[in-house]
Design goal:
Helices cover 67% and strands 4% of the residues. It is mainly α. The chain is elongated.
């Protein structure tokens, strides 16, 4: 009889552990849903190219927007930003002149 009682408590323990695991998987799924909801609010709607109507971003589009960026694309965009800055300032070395107004 003692063996049956031990198996029973082991079964109950295993069942409880399985329930706890399911609850944590459920919580993980809920957190993912909440995260996507917040990201949709942050990134806003997107205009459909075909119909021209506004629509919500899909999960795949959201993950593309907030995952790690391509380093080559980041470097190129920063170079272009710097080139625009140089073009706006006239390309001269104004930083070396200082703010004293001496030219």
């Amino acid at each position: 009889m003692l063996l049956f009682g031990t198996e029973s408590s082991v079964f109950q323990s295993a069942t409880q552990k399985a329930k706890d695991q399911n609850i944590s998987n459920y919580n993980i799924a809920r957190c993912s849903v909440f995260e996507n909801r917040v990201l949709r609010r942050v990134f806003g709607p997107k205009r459909d190219e075909v119909t021209g109507e506004w629509r919500k971003l899909r999960n795949e589009e959201l993950s593309d927007l907030y995952t790690l960026p391509n380093i080559v694309r980041v470097v190129k965009s920063r170079r272009m930003r710097w080139a625009g800055h140089v073009a706006r300032t006239g390309g001269g070395d104004r930083g070396a002149q200082g703010s004293g107004g001496e030219t």
